[in-house]
Here is the input.
Amino acid sequence: MYLIENRREEAGVGARDTIGGHPILPASESWPTCQCGERMVLFFQVDIPPNIPEFGGDHLLVFQCPSDNDAVGVEGIREQLPERYWDVPPVWNDPGAFWRILLHQDGTEPADDVEPHLRPYRLSLRPSTEEVTVWQSDHDPVKRQVGRSEFKIGGVPSWAQDPESYRCACDAEMVYLCQIPIDMGFEKHAHQPEQPDTSSSDHYGLFLGNEVYILACPAHCHPAAAWPVTQN
Ligand SMILES: [Zn+2]
Ligand SMILES: [Zn+2]
Here is the structure.
């Protein structure tokens, strides 16, 4: 398990582990645009360490629209995600794809443009030990295992509610990769507008500040074959 840490050192062009900065995109993808027309914000990107099962060596990027900010509530009880769920997510109120999560191993150069909303910081990944808590609620015959609530790659998700699992459109069982803790703030440039529906005037957040668990397709059937589970 790796903790993702921000030591508040400014990230320059070519930095691969960053908040904001210059995205290193898959060869087949350009900077994502929301269905509302706005270019999405690069919240963070990291190289996945080689010893992380299924995704070692991948580059992970997480984008969300600067204006659309919501949790991700899957319509109905469904574990099978439909075709092109990354473009047309099966989400309540049909908000469209206001986020994009990308994974790839392409040898691409950083984008010329820099993320304009967020202050660019270098991230570092520090190996750490997961601490798993086992518990069992009165109404549930199944014992739960939860890890630490941290900004982290790998380890065990610290499910705030029932664990969720999904099957990719390609039939592969999605695998947990990365967790973003509740109310994690990403510092914005002073001149940028406040993010809608957020509690912070100087930070942006992902998915309304929910605890976020990124699941991804281990078959890598598409660079955007990933799913954000949001809970609180
Ligand atoms: Zn939007
Ligand atoms: Zn897949």
